[in-house]
Amino acid sequence: MTSSDSSPAADALVRVSGAREHNLRNVDLSVPRDSLVVFTGVSGSGKSSLAFGTLYAESQRRYLESVAPYARRLIDQAGVPDVDSITGMPPAVALQQQRGGRSARSTVGSITTVSSLVRMLYSRAGDYPDGQPMLYAEDFSANTVQGACPECHGIGRVYAVPEERMVPDPSLTIRERAIASWPTAWHGHQLRDVLVALGYDVDVPWKDLPRKDRDWILYTDETPFVPVHSRLTLAEARAATKAGVEPSYSGTFVGARRYVLDTFANSKSASMKRRVAQYLDAALCPVCHGKRLKPEALSVTFEGLDIAEFSQLPLRELADMLSDVVAGAQQAETVPNGAVLHANSRRAATEQRIAAGGSAHAAASDVRRTANRSPEKRAAASRLASGLIERLRPLTDLGLGYLSLSRT
């Protein structure tokens, strides 16, 4: 850390003036860029307020100005720092001393927010099929209604719940828990009571029930809400209803398949997800082929790759490719047929990597091509690629270049 009045060249500094976040009191300083800088001090001296509350918060705020309002709402924002000015601020990644709030769909790209910039790259600088209108950044996210594959709803796999999984022993009755996929304890008793209220005999072996009854119990999406007499046989329940006995409660029926799928998709309990997963047969989605996005989003390419293929590249190869994009854009401004020369140089480099035993990801780049983009798209591609390179550099410098953005 240096003082604000004696420092290296101005373009190699992040200059902070009048930082007042939390316990900071009008702090002025200059921080060298592209260097390892350590803030030290006693507890409460303002280290985190400066690093996270001021520098990182301002970097994130500037980045979010370029993000679509809808996508901006999906990002945990650090807020606007209390500071007079900050200059020379590059894009930033914050690695805080706490566990992130991961979900089943969290990836390297989503946790670092790099995927937000990738989606913007495809939206603004991607190569669209003839006649296809431009897509917004959220159309390239499998976690939004706009972008998710309509068949698998952004999961990448489709799930079947076969009867032999849900009912492993058809000699049992429903009361004896023939439907193993239903919940245990009170909820399971409730579902059996609701079936009795609906007129089904839960004391007959499963294999002896009519096929239409078995199919409805397992596969219906109906959710009837009925008054229930708790833990009675079918005959006893009918007698109680006829005698005008007050029902114990009212309950909702949920089919066995629907219970499994809803629990697997929506439960926040890892143990419940594991329990219902044993009743599922999973297969690759036939529409998106595991890429989780709608066909329109997958038809847009950048350097010959759709966004799913792009996100599967190791970070170090991704940074190399984006560096070539920036160099190619600069070359295209000064050299005739620059885009063609750029494509040829990339193909030659790929052949060298393959000959040297390069990875499958590198080999796949043999089919990539740099399209003859318009000057506007070329400029957008260069700016966004430069931003991505800056976001990827801290990760590759930490030795994480082997990861991909799609890594969970």
From TrEMBL:
- Superkingdom: Bacteria
The segments labelled Disordered in the record are 359-379
Q: Where is the signal peptide?
A: none
* Coiled-coil zones: none
Q: Where in the numbering of this chain does the UvrA DNA-binding domain appear? A: 164-277
Comp. bias intervals (Basic and acidic residues): 366-379
Q: Give the GO biological process terms.
A: DNA repair
Q: Which InterPro entries match?
A: P-loop_NTPase (IPR027417), UvrA_DNA-bd (IPR041552)
Q: Where in the cell is it found?
A: Cytoplasm
Query: What cellular component GO annotations does this protein have?
Result: cytoplasm
Tell me where it mainly resides: cytoplasm
Q: Which UniProt keywords apply?
A: ATP-binding, Cytoplasm, DNA damage, DNA excision, DNA repair, DNA-binding, Excision nuclease, Metal-binding, Nucleotide-binding, Repeat, Zinc, Zinc-finger
Claim: Cell wall biogenesis/degradation is one of the keywords in the record? no
Q: Which GO terms describe its molecular function?
A: ATP binding; DNA binding; nuclease activity; zinc ion binding
What protein family does this chain belong to?
A: Belongs to the ABC transporter superfamily. UvrA family.
Which named protein is this?
UvrABC system protein A
Question: What is the taxonomic lineage of the source species?
Answer: Bacteria, Bacillati, Actinomycetota, Actinomycetes, Micrococcales
